[in-house]
Please model this.
Amino acid sequence: MRHQHFAFWRNSRRLTSLVVGLLFLMTTFPASAQFKPQDRKPASGNSRAGGSRGCSSRGIPLTQLAPVTFIGKTASTRPMFIWYMSSSQNVRFRLFEFDSATSIKQIGKVQEIPTIVGINQLKLPLNYPELIVGKTYLWQIAIDCENDTIINHAEFTVIKSQSLPKNQFTSIPEKINYYTEKELWYEALSEALKATESGKLGQTGANLVKELAQSEMPMGSEIDRKNIQQRIEYLQKIASETI
Model:
């Protein structure tokens, strides 16, 4: 009887240890959230994809790593803008604010930005005014090629940031999970790049870009659909080649 009682006590301890261990793993390594936005308000005609020529002959063309077919979201008044380059040359950055659903006005002056091959980042410079919650904006980057100029646009809106308890997050993955759940694309990708080499996406960033590719919505004319489909293929290649 004493032996049976000891065996039961020992097995109970093992079971308790197993449960505690599983709970520890669940809290230490949170499940990875995915960027699957439900609120995908279509972008205006101002950011329709254009054909990529000229510089694209060198490989993947200038590509914005942000929603293009629908309006992205950020809770930052100075968000991080991220794009891919296959060559290192200056790009021209412009920012526009929507006056109405169809009318935009430029904010600040054109900014000449040096780049590197691979992933590039630009936090909204201090010589631009802080963005306004509730407003919709369009950011543009352009490069000159031998026989062409390539211009990319992406629209986004600034939403009200929710107050977070201090020290709520203990790791980058936890922050990324929160941002993807809230559909805050700009914060999610920016956070993912904090732990990567210069010019690289890293595995987490690559996964996000693949999810971005899946979220884009080919629509409009046949030319628009073909351009977006080509953009989706470029995003997938960038995700594979810049880990």
About this structure: The chain has five helices and eight strands. The chain has one domain: 45-161+170-241.
